[in-house]
């Protein structure tokens, strides 16, 4: 972009900034001495400004009554009347509950939020701006458990998403906001807290008894599944301290299976520290144990060090080694082989890991399996030996 283009864009941006009709400004109330007030509701007034040929909405400053905050300056009377009615109702709980009076920056945030989220309850607006002192105002309290927000979230959901500790404490400990309400995805506040890596959020929620900690969403996930999927180790630890259950079956199995699927080492360790029997937990679909789900050497090594069985079988009779070969997980396969995995175990259709490696023409795995004693003459259920499969390979493979 040339110099003149940049200058033009800069000037345009500045012009737009100062011409924003909703930019809140502090003005002397005397400025409206010759203007007619056509609407008044509490401290919010609407003037017809004949000089500027506009309708101006102002909020009288209770700390300095000679001053006001101009909330908007609009040309359209219809728009001005609608916006005035909205502001008059929605701003009242905030200016009435503010002991020191609202600052200009706060008023700007409030009006922007009210316009951007017209369907939000006032409690949602209060949480979004962080106006804790307004929580006990009757106008806010009545919507404390409202789901009038994006996705059916409550104000407490929103506070968890934002990680606002002070708002959370006020809502949970002082206002007794409900924790068992699920949003449109079936998620409670614990699901949202699990996505953060701030254990304090979960600890505050757990300070009040609630069933939400083990609630399963529409996606069949408990909060512990969510934390494991996202690798939020601190959240996993906090959930476990708060007695979150490890034995809840989700879409992929138990939380330990989720941790393995997403290679979340810290999450898997945390679960095994409190529930060692999860080492042998079988998922509902494949009846596979966590070691079947290992995707890399680190995860396989973790489970082996904890005492898992390296030759355990899934519903299809596949051992973890079969899965590593099928999924081309060479490093994990090597960890298994060096820790006693049977290279000649027969799995689905009587295939050994070597049969599978030959079918995939995976030279590195073929060599490793043979080094560890894989039998090239062993037959599967179709009478095929690994050598025969190699001979049929389009690329060919030398044993």
TrEMBL record:
Keyword annotations: ANK repeat, Hydrolase
SMART domains associated with the record: ANK (SM00248)
Signal peptide: none
Annotated GO MF terms: calcium-independent phospholipase A2 activity
Cytoplasm in keyword set: no
Pfam family, one: Ank_2
Source organism, top-level taxon: Eukaryota
ANK repeats: 151-173, 316-348, 349-381
InterPro entries xrefs: Ankyrin_rpt (IPR002110), Ankyrin_rpt-contain_sf (IPR036770), PLPL9 (IPR047148)
Keyword Hydrolase attributed: yes
Protein name listed in UniProt: Phospholipase A2 group VI
Organism: Xenopus tropicalis (Western clawed frog)
Gene: pla2g6
């Amino acid at each position: 972009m040339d110099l003149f283009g940049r200058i033009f864009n800069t000037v345009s941006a500045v012009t737009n900034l100062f011409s924003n009709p909703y930019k809140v400004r502090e003005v002397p109330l005397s400025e409206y001495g010759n203007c007619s007030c056509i609407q008044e509701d509490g401290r919010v007034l609407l003037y017809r400004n004949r000089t500027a040929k506009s309708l101006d909405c102002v909020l009288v400053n209770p700390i300095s009554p000679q001053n006001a905050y101009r909330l908007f300056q609009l040309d359209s009377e219809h728009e001005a009347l609608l916006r005035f009615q909205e502001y008059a109702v929605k701003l009242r709980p905030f200016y009435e509950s503010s002991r020191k009076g609202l600052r200009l920056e706060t008023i700007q945030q409030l009006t922007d939020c009210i316009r951007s989220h017209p369907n939000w309850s006032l409690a949602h607006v209060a949480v979004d701006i962080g106006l804790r002192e307004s929580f006990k105002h009757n106008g806010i309290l009545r919507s404390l458990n409202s789901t009038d927000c994006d996705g059916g979230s409550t104000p407490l959901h929103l506070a968890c998403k934002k990680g606002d500790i002070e708002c959370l404490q006020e809502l949970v400990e002082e206002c007794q906001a409900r924790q068992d309400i699920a949003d449109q995805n079936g998620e409670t506040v614990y699901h949202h807290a699990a996505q953060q890596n701030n254990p304090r959020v979960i600890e505050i929620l757990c300070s009040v008894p609630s069933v939400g900690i083990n609630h399963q969403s529409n996606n069949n996930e408990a909060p512990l599944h969510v934390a494991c999927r996202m690798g939020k180790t601190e959240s996993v630890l906090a959930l476990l301290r708060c007695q979150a259950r490890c034995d809840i079956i989700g879409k992929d199995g138990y939380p330990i299976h989720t941790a393995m699927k997403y290679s979340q080492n810290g999450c898997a360790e945390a679960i095994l520290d409190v529930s060692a029997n999860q080492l042998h937990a079988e998922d509902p679909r494949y009846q596979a144990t966590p070691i079947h789900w290992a995707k890399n050497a680190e995860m396989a090594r973790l489970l082996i060090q904890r005492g898992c069985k390296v030759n355990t079988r899934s519903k299809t009779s596949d051992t973890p080694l079969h899965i590593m070969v099928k999924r081309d997980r060479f490093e994990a396969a090597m960890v298994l082989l060096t820790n006693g995995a049977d290279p000649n175990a027969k799995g689905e259709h009587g295939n050994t890991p070597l049969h599978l490696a030959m079918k995939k023409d995976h030279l590195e795995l073929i060599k490793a399996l043979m080094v560890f004693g894989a039998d090239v003459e062993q037959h599967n259920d179709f009478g095929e030996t690994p050598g025969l499969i190699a001979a049929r390979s389009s690329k060919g493979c030398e044993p």
